[in-house]
Amino acid sequence: MKNVLLCVTGSIAAYKAADIANRLTKDGYHVEAVMTESAQELITPLTFRTLTKNRVYSNMFQEYEPDKVEHISLAKKTDLCLIAPATANIIGKIANGIADDMVTTVVMALKDVPVYICPAMNTNMYENPIVQRNIKTLSELGYYFIEPKSSYLACGDLGKGALADVELIVETVEQHLKK
């Protein structure tokens, strides 16, 4: 069974990550969720624990299992990491090597593991030259991106920045894992 690490960040699209977790779990993948503090303001860890039947990780300093360094343990058993939704903040942190929460420390500990990043943010944020530079940097380093779509956004704006369709995200992940 392939292990998918689903990293959920503080975009309003975080509720769609529950559908991603549910679909991947039903398709036979072992899914573990890692959440930022901001993500937990939008959706609860209980949702992911219920859908995946697995523990949800969020606190770098909580002892989940005795004698384990959780971010290293998670990184070692991951076959694919999916960051959905990915905020401008998390993209910037990863692009600049900042590891100050459970999501970023696990991502920094991954080695030879594909990381798919699914941006979700306001159009102006997505098109910001700094965000685009961070995306370019990560792409050059071998990170994969599933582009956001154009849609009406939570703020009422129309433009590119909405999380890609759940079906596309799940299909992309499953195709990669079947290689």
Explained architecture:
- GO terms for molecular function: FMN binding; phosphopantothenate--cysteine ligase activity; phosphopantothenoylcysteine decarboxylase activity.
- Its EC number is 4.1.1.36, 6.3.2.5.
- Residues 2-177 form the Flavoprotein domain.
- It comes from Sinanaerobacter chloroacetimidivorans.
- Keywords: Ligase, Lyase.
- There is one protein chain.
- This protein has 179 residues and is of the alpha/beta class.
- The chain has a single domain, classed as 3-Layer(aba) Sandwich (Rossmann fold), CATH 3.40.50.1950.
- The chain has helices at 14-26, 37-40, 45-52, 70-77, 88-95, 102-109, 123-127, 129-140, 166-178; strands at residues 3-8, 30-35, 56-57, 80-86, 115-119, 144-145, 149-152, 158-162.
- A six-stranded parallel sheet has the order 3-2-1-4-5-6, sandwiched between helices.
- Strand 1, helix 1 (14-26) and strand 2 form a beta-alpha-beta unit.
- The two termini are 14 Å apart.
Radius of gyration: 15 Å
Structural class: alpha/beta
- The geometry reads as globular
Provide the CATH architecture.
3-Layer(aba) Sandwich
